[in-house]
Amino acid sequence: MPTQHIFHHQQAFQLESGSILPGLQLAYTTYGTLNPQRDNVVWVCHALTGNADCTDWWCGLFGEGKLYDPREWFVVCANTLGGCYGSTGPLSINPITLQPYFHTFPQLTNRDIVRAFDLLRQDLELGRIHTLLGGSLGGQQALEWALLQPKVVERLVQVASNARHSPWGIAFNETQRMAIRQDPSWQTDTPDAGKEGLKTARAVAMLSYRHYNTYHASQGEPGQSITDNFRASSYQVYQGEKLAQRFNAYTYWLLSKAMDSHNVGRDRGGVEKALAQLKARTLVVGVDSDLLFPVEEQHQVQAHVPNSSFHLIHSNYGHDGFLVEFEQLTAAISTFYLQEKLKAQPDYEEQER
Protein backbone atom coordinates (compact mmCIF):
# COMPACT_ATOMS: atom_id res chain seq x y z
CA MET A 1 0.00 0.00 0.00
CA PRO A 2 1.16 3.58 -0.60
CA THR A 3 2.77 5.39 2.32
CA GLN A 4 1.31 8.75 3.33
CA HIS A 5 3.48 11.80 4.05
CA ILE A 6 3.21 15.54 4.66
CA PHE A 7 5.61 18.06 3.14
CA HIS A 8 5.93 21.42 4.91
CA HIS A 9 7.20 24.56 3.21
CA GLN A 10 7.73 27.26 5.82
CA GLN A 11 8.65 30.15 3.52
CA ALA A 12 6.30 32.57 1.81
CA PHE A 13 4.99 31.29 -1.51
CA GLN A 14 4.09 33.92 -4.10
CA LEU A 15 1.33 33.05 -6.54
CA GLU A 16 0.99 34.05 -10.17
CA SER A 17 -1.70 36.56 -9.13
CA GLY A 18 0.73 38.33 -6.82
CA SER A 19 -0.96 37.02 -3.67
CA ILE A 20 1.24 35.31 -1.10
CA LEU A 21 0.66 32.23 1.00
CA PRO A 22 2.68 32.50 4.24
CA GLY A 23 3.56 28.82 3.92
CA LEU A 24 2.06 25.61 2.65
CA GLN A 25 1.89 21.89 3.09
CA LEU A 26 1.28 19.10 0.59
CA ALA A 27 -0.11 15.70 1.48
CA TYR A 28 1.49 13.07 -0.70
CA THR A 29 1.98 9.34 -1.03
CA THR A 30 4.89 7.22 -2.19
CA TYR A 31 4.57 3.70 -3.52
CA GLY A 32 7.46 1.36 -4.23
CA THR A 33 11.18 1.92 -3.71
CA LEU A 34 13.52 4.43 -5.27
CA ASN A 35 16.33 2.52 -6.98
CA PRO A 36 20.05 3.33 -6.46
CA GLN A 37 20.17 5.20 -9.78
CA ARG A 38 17.11 7.25 -8.74
CA ASP A 39 15.77 6.94 -12.28
CA ASN A 40 12.55 4.96 -11.70
CA VAL A 41 10.31 7.85 -10.57
CA VAL A 42 6.73 8.03 -11.82
CA TRP A 43 4.91 11.17 -10.70
CA VAL A 44 1.12 11.26 -10.96
CA CYS A 45 -1.04 14.39 -11.06
CA HIS A 46 -4.65 13.76 -10.04
CA ALA A 47 -7.88 15.12 -11.56
CA LEU A 48 -10.28 17.71 -10.12
CA THR A 49 -11.68 15.75 -7.16
CA GLY A 50 -8.89 13.20 -6.85
CA ASN A 51 -6.55 12.59 -3.94
CA ALA A 52 -2.92 11.64 -3.38
CA ASP A 53 -3.56 7.88 -3.50
CA CYS A 54 -3.50 7.01 -7.18
CA THR A 55 -4.12 3.35 -6.34
CA ASP A 56 -7.56 4.48 -5.17
CA TRP A 57 -8.78 6.08 -8.40
CA TRP A 58 -6.37 4.61 -11.00
CA CYS A 59 -6.08 1.14 -9.50
CA GLY A 60 -5.87 -0.47 -12.94
CA LEU A 61 -2.44 1.07 -13.52
CA PHE A 62 -0.76 0.76 -10.10
CA GLY A 63 -0.09 -2.37 -8.08
CA GLU A 64 1.78 -5.66 -8.20
CA GLY A 65 1.56 -7.25 -11.62
CA LYS A 66 0.25 -4.03 -13.19
CA LEU A 67 1.89 -1.43 -15.43
CA TYR A 68 3.46 0.44 -12.54
CA ASP A 69 4.48 -2.38 -10.24
CA PRO A 70 5.89 -1.05 -6.93
CA ARG A 71 8.64 -3.66 -7.17
CA GLU A 72 9.96 -1.78 -10.21
CA TRP A 73 8.79 1.82 -9.88
CA PHE A 74 8.82 4.59 -7.27
CA VAL A 75 5.48 6.37 -7.56
CA VAL A 76 4.76 9.82 -6.11
CA CYS A 77 1.37 11.51 -6.05
CA ALA A 78 0.59 14.73 -4.18
CA ASN A 79 -2.77 16.25 -3.33
CA THR A 80 -2.90 19.53 -5.19
CA LEU A 81 -2.37 22.86 -3.47
CA GLY A 82 -5.86 24.16 -2.73
CA GLY A 83 -7.11 20.61 -2.21
CA CYS A 84 -9.05 19.13 0.66
CA TYR A 85 -7.18 15.88 1.23
CA GLY A 86 -4.39 17.13 3.47
CA SER A 87 -2.79 19.88 1.40
CA THR A 88 -3.13 23.57 2.22
CA GLY A 89 -6.54 24.73 1.01
CA PRO A 90 -9.53 26.89 1.92
CA LEU A 91 -10.35 24.87 5.05
CA SER A 92 -6.77 25.14 6.35
CA ILE A 93 -5.83 27.53 9.14
CA ASN A 94 -4.26 30.76 7.98
CA PRO A 95 -1.17 31.07 10.23
CA ILE A 96 -1.51 34.86 10.24
CA THR A 97 -5.17 35.11 11.33
CA LEU A 98 -5.31 31.71 13.07
CA GLN A 99 -8.69 31.22 11.38
CA PRO A 100 -9.62 29.04 8.39
CA TYR A 101 -9.06 30.71 5.03
CA PHE A 102 -12.54 29.93 3.67
CA HIS A 103 -13.36 32.61 1.04
CA THR A 104 -10.08 34.46 1.61
CA PHE A 105 -7.97 31.69 0.09
CA PRO A 106 -6.27 33.24 -2.95
CA GLN A 107 -6.99 32.13 -6.50
CA LEU A 108 -4.58 29.56 -7.94
CA THR A 109 -3.37 28.66 -11.41
CA ASN A 110 -1.92 25.36 -12.57
CA ARG A 111 1.42 27.12 -12.76
CA ASP A 112 1.20 27.86 -9.03
CA ILE A 113 0.22 24.29 -8.28
CA VAL A 114 3.11 22.68 -10.16
CA ARG A 115 5.58 25.11 -8.62
CA ALA A 116 4.43 23.75 -5.26
CA PHE A 117 4.85 20.20 -6.57
CA ASP A 118 8.36 21.08 -7.64
CA LEU A 119 9.23 22.25 -4.12
CA LEU A 120 8.25 18.77 -2.93
CA ARG A 121 10.32 17.17 -5.70
CA GLN A 122 13.36 19.14 -4.59
CA ASP A 123 12.76 18.19 -0.96
CA LEU A 124 12.70 14.53 -2.02
CA GLU A 125 15.97 15.10 -3.90
CA LEU A 126 14.55 13.72 -7.13
CA GLY A 127 16.66 15.10 -9.93
CA ARG A 128 14.74 13.30 -12.66
CA ILE A 129 11.19 12.15 -13.24
CA HIS A 130 11.14 9.13 -15.53
CA THR A 131 7.46 9.59 -16.37
CA LEU A 132 5.10 12.42 -15.43
CA LEU A 133 1.54 11.18 -15.81
CA GLY A 134 -1.76 13.04 -15.49
CA GLY A 135 -5.31 13.06 -16.77
CA SER A 136 -7.83 15.89 -17.14
CA LEU A 137 -6.86 18.69 -14.71
CA GLY A 138 -3.86 16.54 -13.75
CA GLY A 139 -2.89 16.37 -17.42
CA GLN A 140 -2.98 20.16 -17.63
CA GLN A 141 -0.68 20.35 -14.61
CA ALA A 142 1.67 17.70 -15.97
CA LEU A 143 2.07 19.58 -19.26
CA GLU A 144 2.69 22.86 -17.44
CA TRP A 145 5.26 21.22 -15.17
CA ALA A 146 7.11 19.62 -18.08
CA LEU A 147 7.47 23.08 -19.62
CA LEU A 148 8.62 24.63 -16.34
CA GLN A 149 11.21 21.92 -15.67
CA PRO A 150 12.44 20.61 -19.04
CA LYS A 151 15.63 19.15 -17.53
CA VAL A 152 13.69 17.18 -14.91
CA VAL A 153 10.77 15.60 -16.78
CA GLU A 154 12.05 12.95 -19.17
CA ARG A 155 8.72 11.52 -20.35
CA LEU A 156 5.24 12.99 -20.28
CA VAL A 157 1.99 11.06 -20.59
CA GLN A 158 -0.92 13.49 -20.88
CA VAL A 159 -4.35 11.85 -20.90
CA ALA A 160 -7.71 13.41 -21.88
CA SER A 161 -6.43 16.94 -21.42
CA ASN A 162 -5.34 20.02 -23.35
CA ALA A 163 -2.91 22.92 -23.70
CA ARG A 164 -5.45 25.67 -23.08
CA HIS A 165 -8.87 25.28 -21.55
CA SER A 166 -11.64 25.82 -24.07
CA PRO A 167 -14.59 28.24 -23.92
CA TRP A 168 -16.76 25.10 -23.86
CA GLY A 169 -14.97 23.75 -20.78
CA ILE A 170 -15.01 27.14 -19.06
CA ALA A 171 -18.76 27.41 -19.71
CA PHE A 172 -19.33 24.02 -18.06
CA ASN A 173 -17.29 25.08 -15.03
CA GLU A 174 -19.00 28.47 -14.73
CA THR A 175 -22.42 26.80 -14.87
CA GLN A 176 -21.36 24.65 -11.93
CA ARG A 177 -20.13 27.67 -10.01
CA MET A 178 -23.45 29.40 -10.72
CA ALA A 179 -25.12 26.52 -8.88
CA ILE A 180 -22.81 27.03 -5.92
CA ARG A 181 -23.50 30.78 -5.89
CA GLN A 182 -27.26 30.11 -5.76
CA ASP A 183 -26.82 28.30 -2.45
CA PRO A 184 -27.51 30.96 0.26
CA SER A 185 -24.97 29.30 2.56
CA TRP A 186 -22.18 30.10 0.09
CA GLN A 187 -22.02 33.62 1.57
CA THR A 188 -21.10 32.26 5.01
CA ASP A 189 -17.67 31.42 6.38
CA THR A 190 -18.39 27.85 7.43
CA PRO A 191 -16.92 24.48 6.42
CA ASP A 192 -20.17 23.43 4.69
CA ALA A 193 -20.75 26.68 2.78
CA GLY A 194 -22.21 25.97 -0.65
CA LYS A 195 -22.74 22.28 0.07
CA GLU A 196 -26.20 22.08 -1.53
CA GLY A 197 -24.98 24.02 -4.53
CA LEU A 198 -22.04 21.66 -4.82
CA LYS A 199 -24.45 18.76 -5.23
CA THR A 200 -26.05 20.43 -8.24
CA ALA A 201 -22.64 21.41 -9.60
CA ARG A 202 -21.54 17.79 -9.51
CA ALA A 203 -24.71 16.66 -11.26
CA VAL A 204 -24.01 19.17 -14.05
CA ALA A 205 -20.40 17.98 -14.24
CA MET A 206 -21.48 14.38 -14.74
CA LEU A 207 -23.08 15.39 -18.03
CA SER A 208 -19.68 16.51 -19.27
CA TYR A 209 -17.76 13.58 -17.78
CA ARG A 210 -19.95 10.89 -19.29
CA HIS A 211 -21.66 10.41 -22.65
CA TYR A 212 -25.10 9.79 -24.10
CA ASN A 213 -24.19 6.12 -24.51
CA THR A 214 -23.08 5.85 -20.88
CA TYR A 215 -26.43 6.99 -19.56
CA HIS A 216 -28.34 4.92 -22.11
CA ALA A 217 -26.52 1.76 -21.03
CA SER A 218 -26.55 2.28 -17.26
CA GLN A 219 -29.59 4.45 -16.53
CA GLY A 220 -32.13 3.35 -19.11
CA GLU A 221 -35.54 2.14 -17.91
CA PRO A 222 -36.30 -1.58 -18.30
CA GLY A 223 -40.05 -1.13 -18.80
CA GLN A 224 -42.35 1.03 -20.90
CA SER A 225 -44.84 2.39 -18.35
CA ILE A 226 -42.73 4.59 -16.06
CA THR A 227 -43.64 8.31 -16.02
CA ASP A 228 -41.60 9.60 -13.06
CA ASN A 229 -38.79 8.73 -10.65
CA PHE A 230 -36.45 7.77 -13.44
CA ARG A 231 -33.17 5.98 -12.81
CA ALA A 232 -31.27 8.79 -14.52
CA SER A 233 -32.87 11.29 -12.12
CA SER A 234 -31.91 9.38 -8.98
CA TYR A 235 -28.43 8.83 -10.40
CA GLN A 236 -27.85 12.58 -10.68
CA VAL A 237 -28.99 13.10 -7.09
CA TYR A 238 -26.79 10.24 -5.93
CA GLN A 239 -23.69 11.66 -7.63
CA GLY A 240 -24.25 15.06 -6.02
CA GLU A 241 -24.74 13.59 -2.55
CA LYS A 242 -21.73 11.32 -2.95
CA LEU A 243 -19.31 14.14 -3.78
CA ALA A 244 -20.69 16.46 -1.07
CA GLN A 245 -19.80 13.83 1.54
CA ARG A 246 -16.10 13.88 0.62
CA PHE A 247 -15.41 17.31 -0.87
CA ASN A 248 -16.13 20.99 -0.25
CA ALA A 249 -17.44 23.79 -2.43
CA TYR A 250 -14.44 26.05 -1.76
CA THR A 251 -11.95 23.61 -3.27
CA TYR A 252 -14.31 22.77 -6.12
CA TRP A 253 -14.60 26.47 -6.93
CA LEU A 254 -10.87 27.07 -6.61
CA LEU A 255 -9.69 24.14 -8.74
CA SER A 256 -12.31 24.65 -11.43
CA LYS A 257 -10.98 28.21 -11.72
CA ALA A 258 -7.43 26.86 -11.98
CA MET A 259 -8.61 24.62 -14.81
CA ASP A 260 -10.20 27.58 -16.59
CA SER A 261 -6.99 29.62 -16.40
CA HIS A 262 -4.90 26.84 -17.95
CA ASN A 263 -2.97 28.21 -20.91
CA VAL A 264 0.58 27.02 -21.50
CA GLY A 265 0.99 29.85 -24.00
CA ARG A 266 0.62 32.55 -21.35
CA ASP A 267 3.84 34.61 -21.30
CA ARG A 268 5.42 32.10 -23.71
CA GLY A 269 4.32 33.60 -27.02
CA GLY A 270 1.20 31.50 -27.47
CA VAL A 271 0.26 27.83 -27.27
CA GLU A 272 2.01 26.61 -30.42
CA LYS A 273 5.29 28.29 -29.53
CA ALA A 274 5.12 26.94 -25.98
CA LEU A 275 4.42 23.37 -27.08
CA ALA A 276 7.34 23.51 -29.50
CA GLN A 277 9.63 24.13 -26.51
CA LEU A 278 8.65 20.89 -24.74
CA LYS A 279 11.69 18.61 -24.27
CA ALA A 280 10.09 15.53 -22.70
CA ARG A 281 9.35 12.54 -24.89
CA THR A 282 5.56 12.76 -24.95
CA LEU A 283 2.55 10.50 -25.33
CA VAL A 284 -0.78 12.25 -25.77
CA VAL A 285 -3.89 10.13 -25.16
CA GLY A 286 -7.46 11.00 -26.08
CA VAL A 287 -10.84 9.33 -25.56
CA ASP A 288 -13.03 9.13 -28.67
CA SER A 289 -16.28 9.89 -26.79
CA ASP A 290 -14.88 12.71 -24.62
CA LEU A 291 -17.24 15.72 -24.66
CA LEU A 292 -15.30 17.87 -22.19
CA PHE A 293 -11.79 17.49 -23.63
CA PRO A 294 -12.57 16.47 -27.22
CA VAL A 295 -9.96 14.60 -29.23
CA GLU A 296 -9.09 17.61 -31.38
CA GLU A 297 -7.52 19.17 -28.28
CA GLN A 298 -5.13 16.24 -27.88
CA HIS A 299 -4.35 16.32 -31.60
CA GLN A 300 -3.39 19.98 -31.21
CA VAL A 301 -0.93 19.11 -28.44
CA GLN A 302 0.61 16.22 -30.35
CA ALA A 303 0.89 18.21 -33.58
CA HIS A 304 3.07 20.88 -31.98
CA VAL A 305 5.14 18.87 -29.47
CA PRO A 306 8.40 17.54 -30.93
CA ASN A 307 9.10 13.84 -30.46
CA SER A 308 5.49 13.06 -29.48
CA SER A 309 2.94 10.40 -30.33
CA PHE A 310 -0.83 10.03 -30.03
CA HIS A 311 -3.09 7.18 -28.96
CA LEU A 312 -6.88 7.05 -29.11
CA ILE A 313 -8.87 5.18 -26.46
CA HIS A 314 -12.26 3.83 -27.53
CA SER A 315 -14.90 4.10 -24.81
CA ASN A 316 -18.59 4.64 -24.15
CA TYR A 317 -17.72 6.40 -20.87
CA GLY A 318 -16.90 9.80 -22.33
CA HIS A 319 -14.25 11.83 -20.50
CA ASP A 320 -14.27 9.34 -17.62
CA GLY A 321 -12.95 6.76 -20.05
CA PHE A 322 -9.45 7.84 -19.00
CA LEU A 323 -10.18 6.42 -15.54
CA VAL A 324 -12.10 3.35 -16.70
CA GLU A 325 -10.31 1.99 -19.78
CA PHE A 326 -7.12 1.11 -17.94
CA GLU A 327 -6.34 -1.90 -20.16
CA GLN A 328 -6.22 0.34 -23.24
CA LEU A 329 -4.21 2.95 -21.36
CA THR A 330 -1.79 0.30 -20.11
CA ALA A 331 -1.29 -0.94 -23.66
CA ALA A 332 -0.72 2.60 -24.96
CA ILE A 333 1.92 3.44 -22.34
CA SER A 334 3.61 0.05 -22.71
CA THR A 335 3.87 0.60 -26.46
CA PHE A 336 5.23 4.09 -25.83
CA TYR A 337 8.04 2.61 -23.71
CA LEU A 338 8.68 -0.23 -26.17
CA GLN A 339 9.04 2.14 -29.12
CA GLU A 340 11.65 4.08 -27.20
CA LYS A 341 13.63 0.90 -26.52
CA LEU A 342 13.45 -0.13 -30.16
CA LYS A 343 14.68 3.25 -31.33
CA ALA A 344 17.60 2.97 -28.91
CA GLN A 345 18.82 -0.21 -30.62
CA PRO A 346 21.88 0.43 -32.84
CA ASP A 347 20.35 -1.30 -35.86
CA TYR A 348 16.95 0.38 -35.57
CA GLU A 349 17.42 2.65 -38.56
CA GLU A 350 18.64 -0.28 -40.64
CA GLN A 351 15.55 -2.29 -39.58
CA GLU A 352 13.33 0.64 -40.59
CA ARG A 353 14.83 0.62 -44.09
TrEMBL record:
GO terms for molecular function: homoserine O-acetyltransferase activity. Its EC number is 2.3.1.31. It catalyses: L-homoserine + acetyl-CoA = O-acetyl-L-homoserine + CoA. Keywords: Acyltransferase, Amino-acid biosynthesis, Cytoplasm, Methionine biosynthesis, Transferase. Gene3D superfamilies: alpha/beta hydrolase (3.40.50.1820). Pfam families: Abhydrolase_1. GO terms for biological process: homoserine metabolic process; methionine biosynthetic process. Residues 41-325 form the AB hydrolase-1 domain. GO terms for cellular component: cytoplasm. It is found in: Cytoplasm. NCBIfam families: homoserO_Ac_trn, PRK00175.1. Belongs to the AB hydrolase superfamily. MetX family. Transfers an acetyl group from acetyl-CoA to L-homoserine, forming acetyl-L-homoserine. This is Homoserine O-acetyltransferase. The gene is metXA.
